[in-house]
Structures are given as C-alpha cells and as structure tokens.
Amino acid sequence: MTRLRSRELPKLYYPTPDELQGAMPLNENLWMRQHQGLMLALANTQEGKDLLCIEDHGLPIIGIRKNAVLYDKGTELMADFRVGAKWSNVVRYRWQEVRRALARMNELFLLKAIRAGVPAGAVTLTAYPDAHAESTSVDGPVSRYRPFASTPWETFATLHSSAGDGANASQASGYFTVIKSGTTNLLYALLNRAIFLFDTSAIGAGATASAGVISFHGKAKGDYFSQSVVLTASNPASNTDLEFADYGTLGTDDHAVAQIAISAWDDSGYNAYTLDASGIAALSVDGISKFGLRNSSDFTGAGSPPTWASDVSGNIQGYYADETGTSKDPKLVITYTLAFTPKAIMF
Hints:
Elements: H1 17-20, E1 25-26, H2 28-34, H3 36-43, H4 46-52, E2 61-64, E3 68-72, E4 77-81, H5 86-93, H6 95-115, E5 122-127, E6 139-145, E7 154-155, H7 156-161, E8 166-167, E9 173-181, E10 187-199, E11 208-223, E12 228-233, E13 260-261, E14 270-274, H8 277-281, E15 288-295, H9 296-300, E16 313-319, E17 331-337, E18 345-346
Parallel strand pairs: 1-18
Antiparallel strand pairs: 2-3, 3-4, 5-17, 6-8, 6-10, 7-10, 9-10, 9-16, 10-15, 11-14, 11-16, 11-17, 12-13, 12-15
C-alpha cells in the first residue's frame, strides 16, 4: 500500500453550525447595526458586561459600536472609546458564548411581547432623532419668514408654495408648526413646518413593521386659526442636516389615524400619532424613517388659507432631539416581526 505524505493528505473542511444554516459573513459595522437591539439588551446585564468586557459605571448603556460604548448620564452622554475595534473583536473571540447570550435576549423580548399582548413573534424598537452633532438622523424646523420691508408679507398661497428661507438642525426646543399673519388684510409673515428623521435600520431587512406610534413632547401652543397638526412624510436632502430647500419636501399624505387639534395639544406631555396603513408603509426597517408636521391649512394646500386675523399666530411648540437627554425627545416606537434568516457571522 502506498503511504501518503502529510502534504498529500486530503484537506477536509467541516462547516460551522452557523454556516450549515446558510449564514453569510457580515461587515462588523453592519453587524453591530443590525443586532443593536439585542446587543443593548445584553450590554445592560451583568452577564453582558462581563462577556463583552464593558466597564460598569452604574449607568444605562444606550449604544454599542465596534469601538465605543455610550452611557446615559441623564444630563449628558458619556462614551468609552477605543482606537481599535475592541467590541467587535470581543464578539469574534467569544462568538459561541455571545451567540447563546443574544439568543436568550431574543427569547426574553418575545416573552415580554407576548405578555404585553403583542402578537407572538413581534418585538418593538424605540428610535429618537440624533442630537447634534448628528450621525444618522436629524430633526428641526424649516420655514419661510417674511418679517421686513425687504421681505414683505405675502399671501398664504405664496408663503405656502414658495421656497423656504429658514432651517435649524440644532434647535433644542421651540416652534414645530406656525402660521403667523401680518397686519395687512390677507397677508401672512411666517409659515413653519417641522422635520423628524429616525434611524430604524437596527430592525434589519426582511422584517415586517405592523404598527408604529410617533410621539412629540409639547411645550406651548397658540390656536388663533383653529388649526390641527398633521403628520406627513418628509424627504430632506440630507439625513444629518437641514437646508432651506427642505421646506418643500414635506408630504401631502396624512400618515396618522387622526390629526391632533392645536386646542387638544398637550403642552406639558407627549402627543402621540398612531400610524395608519400609509404611515406604516412609510417606515424603513433597514434605513431612515422620515416624517414631518404641518398645520392643517398648510397641509390642505395653497388654496385653503385659514380665516385671516391681524397679527396672530396658530402654532405648537415642543422639544427636539437637541434638548438635554431623551426624556422629551421625539420618539418613534415600531412593532415589527422578524423574518427567519440564518444567523450572521461577523468578520
């Protein structure tokens, strides 16, 4: 019998259990994004801190990336940064242990959802726009303002349909929607709209959104034009900044089950919009969900001005994401169901 030398021996490869499920390698940045919900759940347990080598500062962890862990101090954020990709390396080195721990977190999510009356298999994600400096999402007001002799008051139709000349991506609180009149009959000085983007990519492609609620914390209101506030889509040029032209990008479809009358606007608590079918369809499970607010006359169109009165304002005020902390931030809660996909191997 001829003996084979070692270099001639057949090289056998045995797939891992993940590969047998059809798993495909994922880049570490994408992996961290798609598994952010489960990673946060794990990171906020003692088991997770020990497993992932996370420093326990006694603070809630609100984000984990390949090279950073973010903590919420209440009035400010704290970050533990590393030059290298420390936490993606830990996941790789301890993949079997991490995978089992994440599976347990997923089971806890499902159990909680079932007990809360959410359809079996459905889970939720809560998203906020980024505070400045924005990394994935933005919020803020956009407007057309005609207060001076060089920019005289305009008809409602002109104010509604012309280009914007105001935008603020770093406003902490203030006006969401405004219609302000001048002192000359049928002329107006200001029309304000608001844009809100939410990074909902952590859900991941293949999931199905079944419900959504967007809530805005009120601050003040003035109902001189008997308006209501309509939730629409928006489509700013950038996901992380606002510009004047974004004034013209708010949608013309009502995306909520009901509008909220300014007279009913809670100026000291949250105001919730339950998404209708079109609003649910506007959600992105693997990208940025984009919405906005506009007053009802502005939503109806250039030919539907409010009943004019001299020098009055119909408006709501609230808190944007640049307000300290997230206790008053705009928030989007999505209920969704994950499709079965093989587990991903991070490389």
